[in-house]
TrEMBL record:
One of its GO terms (biological process) is proteolysis. InterPro entries: Lysozyme-like_dom_sf (IPR023346), NLP_P60_dom (IPR000064), Papain-like_cys_pep_sf (IPR038765), Peptidase_C40 (IPR051202), Transglycosylase_SLT_dom_1 (IPR008258). Residues 188-317 form the NlpC/P60 domain. This is Hydrolase Nlp/P60. Pfam families: NLPC_P60 (PF00877), SLT (PF01464). One of its GO terms (molecular function) is cysteine-type peptidase activity. It comes from Streptomyces violaceusniger. The lineage of its organism: Bacteria, Bacillati, Actinomycetota, Actinomycetes, Kitasatosporales. Keywords: Hydrolase, Protease, Thiol protease. Gene3D superfamilies: 1.10.530.10, endopeptidase domain like (from Nostoc punctiforme) (3.90.1720.10). SUPFAM superfamilies: Cysteine proteinases (SSF54001), Lysozyme-like (SSF53955). PANTHER family: MUREIN DD-ENDOPEPTIDASE MEPH-RELATED (PTHR47053:SF1). Belongs to the peptidase C40 family.
Amino acid sequence: MAKIGISILGAVLLVVALAAAGASSVLSVFSGSAGSQPSRTALTDIPPDYLTLYQQAATTCPGLDWSVPAAIGKVETDHGRSTLPGVHSAANAKGAKGPMQFLQPTFDAVTAKHPIPQQEAGAPSPYDPRDAIYTAVAYLCDSGARGGRNLHQAILTYNPAEWYVAKVLAQAQDYQNPSSLGGTTEPSPAARKAIDYAEGQLGLPYEWGGNGPTDGDAGFDCSGLTKAAYAAAGINLPRTAEEQFHADPRVPQGKPLAPGDLVFYGTPDEGIHHVGLYIGQGQMINAPNFGQKIKIAPYRHQGDDYAGATRPAQAAVRA
């Protein structure tokens, strides 16, 4: 991390999967004071006192669901259960401390700006779960999570690595009860394979007409990536974004997206010029353009020309 120490060793990419709201409200499932309800996984895995703290602290940042700081707590120190140096005393090799793994200067700067509600006597401590969790929420909020502005950037500020963003979002999905989100958060087997494949291409360069290293190319263009991702799941897609847009079952406008959906940009009449692979929580994996790398990014932004989504995995089920 740039400002917060890394405590994870040997971490691998996980599938990111969370059904989010439709085009009109990308992160509406993360707004409001109540947030999502804990899944059985969350109730089993998160110590009750930590779960209460994640839920209470998240209400101080409109637009941030409690599951996101909870996922960070899990990834960093297993909710304080880790016995590695720096979790309960001293610091790790990067200087990070406590269950949310703060560098002391960062912790001090955030708590100075955002005093912890009902703080007990004495200075806040990064080792204290309550102090650490409230401070982590404030840090995420200032970094882009407030109002659902840019959750991806907020997590990336916490730890500037795309694998970390993917892992946190995946864990957050596991902690949310699907019924509280108005749909399922679990990707189909085909969608999961496609997402796994796409995550494995993060960091490769955009290459116009590129079909990936297995085809002798350095990278992919947008539709080359989505075609290869679904080929890994045994589903054959057309080559171009335009053709893919017209090939699979359309997600009805206003209906929640599901992990594995393809999201398109352009207009049906004038042409589709871009496609990405939706991975949940308002995020997609895509090959953006010349000079850029395959990355995770919000699937909606102000002024975009989002045209709609399709669900290749649904076609596979029907077949």
